[in-house]
Write a structure and sequence with these properties.
The chain is mainly alpha-helical. It has one domain (about 1-195): CDP-alcohol phosphotransferase transmembrane (TM) domain (Four Helix Bundle (Hemerythrin (Met), subunit A), Up-down Bundle), CATH 1.20.120. Helices cover about 70% and strands about 5% of the residues. It has seven helices and two strands, in the order H-H-H-H-H-E-H-H-E. It has a two-stranded antiparallel sheet. The longest helix is centred in the first third of the chain and has 26 residues, at about 35-60. It is globular and about 45 Å long. The two termini are about 30 Å apart.
Length: about 200
């Protein structure tokens, strides 16, 4: 039964590893540990890397599973939300930035769940992929760079803008289920299609 719920392949192991790294990241940020920021930056970078590697391996090896389709995007969101909340609590990130990003992620997740119940999968857009990359870059910069240099602030604001725009694009495409952007679930052939 456990094997059926969690098929033991490398992509799924990497997804689980990413989830397990979230509390490590939070403790590294919030704990009074030597070189905590360095450890947090390394953990966040490693966890983010597994996001790209597991999707690539799943497609290359034909190891796409229901567990992966469900847990991969959840792991991504747990990583981002955990980092945002920790940074806000440290007063290193403005609260409204985290609020906007988290609200968008929750809204799109609920939309995907409703669409899934209708047997519809909305194909991943370039906005979603760019959003993920910019969010990762912005959070990594805030963790690794002390103070608030202009380029870090601009990167954060860019991440917020792309996050909002990608969310609006997702909702726009969700209202057109008959178009090429929203198709029956059978067209979802890769884990990359779940990235939102």
């Amino acid at each position: 039964m456990v094997v059926e719920m969690l098929p033991l392949n490398l992509p799924n192991v990497l997804t689980v590893l990413r989830i397990m790294l979230v509390p490590v990241l939070v403790v590294a940020l919030l704990g009074n540990t030597p070189s905590g920021d360095v450890l947090a930056a390394v953990v966040f970078a490693l966890a983010s890397l597994t996001d790209f590697v597991d999707g690539y391996l799943a497609r290359a090896r034909g190891s796409i599973t229901t567990f992966g389709k469900l847990m991969d995007p959840l792991a991504d969101k747990l990583l981002i939300v955990g980092a945002l909340l920790a940074l806000v609590s440290l007063h290193r990130l403005e609260g409204w930035v985290a609020m906007v990003i988290i609200a968008r992620e929750l809204a799109v997740t609920m939309l995907r769940a409703n669409a899934g119940q209708a047997g519809v999968v909305i194909a991943a857009s370039m906005f979603g992929k760019v959003k993920t990359c910019v969010q990762i870059a912005a959070i990594l910069a805030v963790i690794a760079v002390h103070g608030s240099p202009l380029w870090v602030s601009l990167l954060v604001y860019l991440a917020v803008a792309i996050t909002v725009l990608s969310g609006l694009d997702y909702f726009r495409r969700a209202t057109r289920p008959a178009s090429s952007d929203a198709t029956p679930a059978a067209r979802s052939r890769s884990r990359g299609a779940t990235r939102t």
